[in-house]
Amino acid sequence: FFFFKQKTAYEILSGLVGSEMCIRDRSSEIDRIASDTTFGGMKLLDGSNTKGFAFQVGANANQTISFKMSAAFTVGGMAKVAGVSTTFASGAGKIDISKATLAQAVLGSVDAMIKVVDSKRAELGAVQNRLDSTVRN
Prior knowledge:
Layout: H1 9-36, E1 38-39, E2 42-43, E3 53-56, E4 64-67, H2 75-82, H3 100-136
Antiparallel strand pairs: 1-2, 3-4
């Protein structure tokens, strides 16, 4: 026979606090990576370069490959593009997943932000393919 001990409210609450801390820690790490990623002294992911990037790929004028990071690759920047709440993205708000409806709202926001990341990764992948093709030719 198996006997399962029912968890107390304290045990459930401490598990939720751990999950909330994990989400905040990941958010902070994403923001740190976005602010620290540079190439040639220029920050790439923090959204500060509004003009975009252009790479000269040929011997003649206007033979360039360009791309633009229109929004920061921070949690807040992705949330803004996705059109979702930035309550937990800013770090100022508490992530509340103590109820199923609140947890689902957080997951819905995360899903929307993942779609933003997927879209930007596809765009950057296309630029990378163009650069690779240029190097091969």
